[in-house]
Structures are given as structure tokens and as C-alpha cells.
Amino acid sequence: MLDKINRLKEEIAALTASDAAAVEALRIKYLSKKGSVSLLFNDFREVAPQDKKAIGQALNELKTMATEKINSLRESTETTDAATDGLDLTRTASPIALGTRHPLSIVREEIIAIFRRLGFTIAEGPEIEDDWHVFSSLNFAPDHPARDMQDTFFINREPDVLLRTHTSSVQSRVMERQKPPIRIICPGRVYRNEAISARAHCFFHQVEALYVDKNVSFADLKQTLLYFAQEMFGPETQIRLRPSYFPFTEPSAEMDISCNLCGGKGCSFCKGTGWVEILGCGMVDPNVLEACGIDPNVYSGFALGMGVERITNLKYQVKDLRMFSENDQRFLEEFQAAH
Ligand code: DAH
Fold first, then answer.
1. Ligand 1 atom nearest residue 166's Cα
2. How far does the centroid of ligand 1 lie from the alpha carbon of residue 319, in Å?
3. Is the CB of residue 259 below 6 angstroms from any atom belonging to ligand 1?
4. Domain spans in the chain, listed from the N-terminal domain onward
5. 180 lines ligand 1 (CB under 6 A)
6. From CA 61, how far away is CA 134, in angstroms rounded?
7. Would you list the DSSP string of 240-302?
């Protein structure tokens, strides 16, 4: 009997298990009611009285050592299970690296939000356009220089297929299919055949606004412009309108704002004038309304268009236009706090 106990001790001491199921199988094999250790306790009844003390002691030792062995195997598989899952629940979580929004997206969204508060809704149009929507419907003369291959990217001639040079094309698309009142804001990318430099690029972004209804006046335009400028650049911002020319508006104007860097005193950014130009605008030319199927005797409207890069430059002083499309992470990360 003592031999049996010792052999079992050796056997149990050498046990190994790779997972929790294997440990449970061993527990059943040795320690359950029918397990080999328990069966030895049954045999104990047959042991001669003079041997009972020694064998009883050995049996108890065997049971304790078997229980401890199974427990320690169970503990070791529990830690390896967690390790195989690749999880260490005690580790401190690593911080989530937040992405940044592109500065042009930040500014575009801000422009849109301001016009939304005035009841404008977003309208979009295609970047690949035709002559009618980019030029003819907008009152460009047949020999207007913008139609030149030097200024516009043509994909095809006769019929003309081209990349839009401004978002004003969305104006005519919307006016053709929608009756006034129309109050839209059109953000989008535009293309021009320009050599790429710090101050010019072959693609950039514009936001166009159009309001057509009965009795829309220049005063409505001016108040909208003032509201926009003060929301965008702060309540002290002043505006001034300079007469200008666009084929699709009459009268036309360019809007300057008081320089937001020096507050209008004059600095190198505004070249000492205290003013910086930010957009073009005007009353929609009756020819444009007519070309798009809207009666100019009943309706009038105003339009304005601005470059998102220009506004972004004013807000964040980005000197080189090329920064916007180079995806330099160091530049983009500077806008982490902006939104
Ligand atoms: N389309 C003009 C441009 O690309 C900007 C512009 C000026 C849009 C006056 C307008 C406007 O709607 O009324 O330079």
C-alpha cells in the first residue's frame, strides 16, 4: 500500500496541463469520488491495525499534495489563457490619438454654419461641367477670356466639357430646376489652369451664396455681408464695398473687411491699408435670371462668392497655398485645437 501511495505521489508531482479543461480532467482522474486518490482511501479499511497510523499519515499527505498540485496547475493555466488572448487587463489604457480636421474643412463648415443661421441650405453641383452652366447662362460674352484654354481646363471641345472654374455654376443649375424663393449656399472645389505657386493653385475651394425672391435688394446683400463678416471675424469687424465687375451681377462689388490682424491700423498683412479683400458679390444680372427661366420683372436676387483658402489664410495666416494640399502632418496637426 505504501508503495502504491509513493508511486501515485511521484505520478502526481510530474503532472502538467496546458489549459483549464486538462486541469479539470486531472482533478476528476485523481480527486473525484472515483479518482485514484479517493479509491486508496477505500482500500484503507483493509489495512492491518498496526499499519494504520503510518499509512493513514501517508494517505493524508498524498491527498494534500494532490489538491495543491491541481490548484497550482489551475492557476498557471489561468494566466496563460489570458496571455494567449493578448489581453492584460491590468495595463493602463494607451491614450487615443485624435485625428485633426483639415483647416479648409474647418473654415468651410464655419462659413456654412453662419449662412445656415440665416436660412440658407446647401446645394451642390458637378465639378465636370459644360459651357452653359459655367459661362453662357452666367452672361459671359462669347469671347470672354475665361473661356480661353489658358484659364480653363477643357476635357472636350464641341461640345464643351470642362472643369468648373467657379461655384457660380451651381447658381444656374439650381435656378433652372427650382422656383424662388431660393436661398442656397454652394461649397465646392474649382479648377483653373494656373501655374502652382505660393499664391495660386490649379484647384482651390469656393463657397457661393445665392438669394432670389421678390424684392431682394442691395440692402439685403449688405446686411448679409456684415452679419457674415462679424460672425466669422468678430463683432468689431467692419466691411467696405468697392465697385467691381462680374458678368453675372449688376451692380457688382468686392468686399473688404477691416484687417483682423491689426484691427485696421495698417500692418504688413494688409499692406498698410487696414483693409483686406475677401469676396465678390452683387445683384444677380437680369440676363442670368432670364437664362435660367426666372422672370426678372418679378424676382431679383443677390449672389456672393468667396475663396475658402483666402478666408482660411486670414483666420490662420497660412502664407503658402500649397500647404493645403501637401498633407504635411506637422502642418495639419497645428489645427488640433481648432475643432
Ligand atoms: N465666381 C466669382 C469668382 O470665381 C466669385 C463671385 C463673384 C461669385 C461675385 C459671385 C458673385 O456669386 O456675385 O471669382
1. 4
2. 23
3. no
4. 2-81, 103-335
5. no
6. 96
7. EEEEEEETTEEEEEEEEEE-TTTTTS--TTTTTSSEEEEEEEEEEPHHHHHHTT--TTT-EEE
Cβ–ligand 1 distance for 246 under 6 Å, the answer: yes
Superfamily of domain 103-335: Bira Bifunctional Protein; Domain 2 (3.30.930.10)
Minimum CA distance residue for ligand 1 atom 8 = 305
Going from the Cα of 73 to the center of ligand 1, the distance in angstroms, rounded, reads 78
The answer to whether residue 34 scores a pLDDT higher than 80 is yes
Residue with C-alpha cell 491527498? 63
| Nearest protein Cα to ligand 1, atom 13 | 281
Q: 3-state DSSP call for residue 5?
A: helix
The C-alpha angle with vertex 203 and arms to 206 and 267, in degrees rounded to 5, equals 65
**Confidence at residue 95, expressed as pLDDT on a 0 to 100 scale:** 80
Contacts of 308 (CB under 8 A, 6+ apart): 104, 107, 108, 111, 187, 204, 205, 206, 207
Which residue has the least CA distance to atom 12 on ligand 1? 304
pLDDT in tens, 86-142: 777 888 888 887 788 999 999 999 999 999 999 999 999 999 999 999 999 999 998
Q: Which residues pair with 129 in a beta bridge?
A: 162
Distance (Å) from CA 214 to ligand 1 centroid: 22
- CA 112 – ligand 1 centroid, Å: 17
pLDDT exceeds 90 at position 319: no
175-186 pLDDT, tens digit each: 999 999 999 999
